[in-house]
């Protein structure tokens, strides 16, 4: 018998009461490691949880290209700004749960199909839409199951909650844009370029879009491009006027950042300075809409995924991402009155805001060249970097994407981006990794205590899952000293709350660090990570790495393509064993591995040269 239930105490207890603990097997389909732990506690130690980490990742690899083509087909049918600015067309596993939920559906179907008539399986499913989709598919296949839904009262509360969240988010977002507009104007910024040299006033500009926070300034207040390295200086040496389009990150101190930009002397364009109250009012009214109606979507690989895709569109209605993309056109339209643009360069990750800029720049500056720079490391399952042939020519896209070397060039080419739209460059962003890299393995610390550095993903659910695993694996202070380094955009207390713990309750031998990863790597024996660039820094420093495989989400580790470079595990016991194994390897073996690690770093992040700078020149972009 198969039972589908929500992760609620009453539902779990009721399902468990029908079976003996010894005969009950259960699967958790959701992203919250905290909730999964609670379900395990409610079921008791006798119930057997089936770990689906390996099956989930294999299913994701198998469904990768079919999903890209499926979404591409939808884009060909729904070719409009509303589609291209939405989360479904973006295909980003870190934003939309559509691909993950489809993989969950496939895993659940395979598990259920293998069950004997007398077997008992409990499917604990976080998402109501996913639970409904799985139940519908099992019914269609003639597989007997019992779906338990939330009560009608809870469903009504959920609808009211959606409306409340939508209104709160929209009100907060309007207030945020208004505050940023007023603050920028009060500090003397206008729709034109601040700190522009008089000689460049009549020339078309190269605009370099950058995400800015406190990391962009050194101790003396000098500005540096976090994502583009020395590109701006290289273009200026070639005689081009370059201005930074400074989009301040959401959690950064806005007024402080603008004040530092004003003092830096760097030509800068602040997007919010181009807004007016009239523009904000018009934009706000245009974003007020009723929730999208459920629709019958085309089937995916025989699966009815309508409930899953409807949930993504509803989430876009609740959140503010899509509305912010529409505001970009208003901002770029204001720029047209104050400056000419020769080219617009931005960080390429396949996000919807990039499409907003591509569409707006083509509309308001039709002669300008659009160049995306693939600044980060990429996994084969980073579907936001991928295009279907059906999308090409319709999706707003730059004239050229410059990649981080030949490995990423090949990966993006395999992801569907045409050869004529790609150019192979170097790793402008990661000069510090290469400068600090060594071909020698770090020496193992003396004594019985292992020094472990743990770096966390920007995604709170991923960070929570790894945090709980680390606490379980390295609880003995006589054997481990653990340093926890959270992503700059994810505060430690938020990640801890997602794990159901408080930062202050961490054991004394586990400490949260604020120093840069490059500094922390000087005093560790091993790095544990999920999908962060810190793994490349560690390998460059000769520090072995252990990769945590998520059992709740799609694995986006870019090192997956290089067997033997890192050890992967998805269990607490395996994490403990892997860390001790790589840290206690004999010196000759560690030295041989370190040479291989340096080769991988050089392969994935090759140093840029002057030819890389030339790829961004407006006249060289076709």
Walk me through this protein's architecture.
The chain is an alpha/beta fold and 622 residues long. 43% of the residues lie in helices and 13% in strands. It has 23 helices and 18 strands. The strands form three sheets. It has a seven-stranded parallel beta sheet. A six-stranded parallel beta sheet has the order 15-14-13-16-17-18, with helices on both faces. Helix 1 (9-17) packs parallel to helix 2, helix 6 (98-113) packs parallel to helix 7 and helix 7 packs antiparallel against helix 12. The termini are far apart. The model has no long low-confidence stretch (mean pLDDT 90).
Compute the number of helices. Answer: 23
Mean pLDDT comes to: 90
Write down the oligomeric state.
single chain
How are the strands ordered across the major sheet?
8-7-6-9-10-11-12
The N- to C-terminal Cα distance equals 60 Å
Largest sheet: 7 strands, parallel
Q: How many strands appear in the DSSP assignment?
A: 18
Q: Give helix % range.
A: 40-55%
Query: Rounded to an integer, what's the Rg over CA atoms?
Result: 25 Å
Tag the structure with descriptive keywords.
single chain, 622 residues, alpha/beta, seven-stranded parallel sheet, 13% strand, globular
Please describe the topology of this protein.
Blueprint: E1 2-5, H1 9-17, E2 25-29, H2 33-43, E3 48-49, H3 53-77, H4 81-84, H5 87-90, H6 98-113, E4 121-125, H7 128-140, E5 145-147, H8 152-186, E6 205-212, H9 231-237, E7 242-248, H10 254-264, E8 268-269, H11 277-286, H12 306-318, H13 321-335, E9 341-347, H14 352-364, E10 369-373, E11 400-403, H15 406-414, E12 422-424, H16 431-436, E13 450-455, H17 460-473, E14 480-485, H18 492-499, E15 510-512, H19 517-520, E16 526-529, H20 534-540, E17 545-548, E18 567-569, H21 572-583, H22 587-604, H23 610-614
Parallel strand pairs: 1-4, 1-5, 2-3, 2-4, 6-7, 6-9, 7-8, 9-10, 10-11, 11-12, 13-14, 13-16, 14-15, 16-17, 17-18
Helix pairs in contact: 1-2, 3-6, 6-7, 7-12, 13-14, 17-18, 17-21, 20-22
